[in-house]
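Usage example:
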Amino acid sequence: MNINKIILIFIIVLVSNAIYAQDEIKFVRVSRLNDVERFQCFELKKMVDDFQYSEKVIRYDIDEMNEFVEMVFEREKNGKYFGRFDEYSITFKEGSDFYRYKEVIENVFQREGIIYITAVGFIKSERVCNKNICEIKVFNGKKLLFSKKDN
Amino acid sequence: MKIKSLIFVSLFVLIIFPAYGQDLRIHKEDSVMTNEEVAIFEKIKKAYPSFNYSKEIVRIFRVDEKSKNKKLILVEINFGEKITQYYDMFYEPDSRIIRFKYGTGSSYRGEGAIIAGEKIIINSSKGCSQSACEVLVTAGKKIIIEQIVE
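Running the assembly step on the lines above writes:
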């Protein structure tokens, strides 16, 4: 193989890798909260006692207008999130004020809800199941406004 | 010889390094809702008759190129060309929460989330016109929170 052929292969590999890399970065990337998200989470953490968030996120570019963001949490030594949850997730779309959270302790507890920041505080709607008894609750700040059995 | 060695090393670096950090990618699949999914959306429609959806969906997977694991992360409702305004509706697997965002430019826009319980459907939304936003949380026809923000 002469030097020209090697250089040609080198250029092809270089170009194809560059194209491939751009394509992948466009779709999924491990990242951190941006300034707005960090501020919102920081404010929520101050207002909501049990709100936990992560700086590390995975960003999915669904299309030009949609970026779905999933926080990345680490399991503790006992294999649980925050020492007790089998599942713990927070997701949102970039630019949205609505955060979805889910906490699961298998066969014992499940909580899934939406929390969002308003001009004066936050509003939280959630469905909570303790064993087989489920309830739907709505909070305006820390004030419980609605609570009803849901099974 | 020196040039050949350099090229060899460059090739090696180029092949190895672009792979770093690119193990994850998105895979989209056009699909239709299962009967269970339709039942949830019909329950919402019963509580909120003006609620619209499409049975055509896009299932979005996260694919790990190394392990070849494929995990469903999101389901987007595919409204196609049926609506003229921007409308984004999606939910996550094993979730009772459907989220949506809509808008016709800057004059009218909003977002919200619906919790589809067994018996109770909660709709939380924030809708904005050019002059004000309204935050509304309802359980069917019952208004739980209504706030106007100038």
